Amino acid sequence: MDSIVVKGGGTLSGQIPIAGAKNACLTLMPATLLSEEPLTLTNAPRLSDIRTMTELLRSLGAEVTSMQDGQVQAMSCHGQINTRAEYDIVRKMRASNLVLGPLLAREGHAEVSLPGGCAIGARPMDIHTDGLALMGADIDLRDGYLHAKASGGSLKGAVIDFPFASVGATENIMMAATLAKGTTVINNAAREPEIVDLAKCLRAMGAQIDGDGTSRIEIQGVDRLHGATHRVVTDRIELGTYMLAPAMCGGEVELLGGRIDLVAAFCEKLDAAGVDVTETETGLKVARRNGEIKAVNVTTEPFPGFPTDLQAQMMALLCTAEGTSVLEEKIFENRFMHAPELIRMGADIEVHGGTATVTGVNKLKGAPVMATDLRASVSLILAGMAAEGETKVSRVYHLDRGYEHVVAKLRGVGANIERIKE
Ligand code: EPZ
Question: Which stretches within 205-310 are classed as H helix?
């Protein structure tokens, strides 16, 4: 297993290109199941999660060709397809559950393994299955698989009230509804930019969708969808992650392709902490306002609130802020696993349930630490870049799921960082 070694100190300068969004690509790829014609995605990120989704779609009978070093995913899904998503693929990545809606819409039945537990939480699928049941699907759980069947062979439109604005459930229902008979309304739908990006792609394929980006999405079912070419939206989580690099290390970095609208709530917190974000012709420029970082309180919420996927990275910044910050994690039940690792580096953090209280210390000290999940791993790298001494982050395979070329991108702006094979 590889590790990443970071030597702290030194300010940063230069540019970091931001890739296409992992979490958009992982829902755009299953959309190929909705049409017999080719779907091509450009600006796709080169990540292990994308390779896992490719493996899953191929196992269902889709043809997936990665071109231009993985930045283009050309897919087509004509003829008979397999409707069983096997456990040995699904267990590697929860987003595999996003084939459930498309398979049901296309074939009228599907067997999708439950993803199983995940480090950050139980992550059940009740909102997905309750919504599909309202659309006429009979779903039962047997031998670890969801066995779903659309009564009468096809789904029908329904009004669905989500108890929580689930991102994945919004995506699954939206895709399923494109080919259902009649109109589907999702109330309390998720509003993330990845939802808007999926709706844009589905409309390009001929779907009739309104209200994406708001809490009420209306989908008018159509008989069939055609092929399309779609550019994957910029990754707002990679963007926010790298915006924290100059905030923590000093200096000034431009994030190429960055857009304020993708990270508005995050930028409000950066502003309160004393970090300036300036829009440029080619992205966002980030620098500390006057050297000191101030404590801020953060509560994670569904978009447009502060994203849970940036909570770990923000905590790394607040470890050396002036004052005490309170971080509330409202989306997942176990998303503070980075805290004990940051404490090993000298941070002063107290975790009680879903609340972490961070009292700023003067400097973090480099130490051997362990990555526990995707976003925790990158928060440890950021902390190491700002710490005194050397930090060695082990189990960096977590990183490869969501951050392409992380060493090259950070070294490109002056970080002293390298990846070593253990
Ligand atoms: C998506 O996961 C993202 N993944 C996650 O990013 C992100 O953290 C999450 O949305 C929240 O923004 C992808 O898009 C591939 P949810 P998803 O359904 O769809 C509960 C990363 O680091 N819930 O909005 O699984 C669930 O347990 C990953 O890139 C139910 O109870 O998130 C969780 O507590 C991590 N029942 C909360 O809702 C359900 O049926 C949010 O889940 C579904 C969800």
Answer: 236-249, 264-273
Determine the average pLDDT of the residues in 212-241: 98
Q: What is the pLDDT of residues 10-65, one digit of tens each?
A: 899 999 999 999 999 999 999 999 999 999 999 999 999 999 999 999 999 999 99
Q: Which residue has the CA at smallest separation from atom 14 of ligand 1?
A: 23
Mutate to test the pocket of ligand 1, among 23, 29, 195, 314 (most ligand atoms within 8 A of CB): 23
* Selected catalytic residue, list 25, 77, 118, 249: 118
Q: CA distances (Å), 317 to each of 37, 237, 291, 349, in order?
A: 46, 15, 13, 12
Q: Mind listing the domains of the chain with CATH numbers?
A: 3-18+234-420 (3.65.10.10), 22-231 (3.65.10.10)
- 342/78 Cα distance (integer angstroms): 49
* Residue nearest (by alpha carbon) to ligand 1 atom 4: 23
Question: Which pTM does this prediction carry?
Answer: 0.97
| Cα 292 to middle of ligand 1, angstroms | 34
Helices (H) and strands (E) in the chain — how many of each?
Answer: 14, 24
Alpha-helical regions (H) of 181-261: 193-204, 236-249
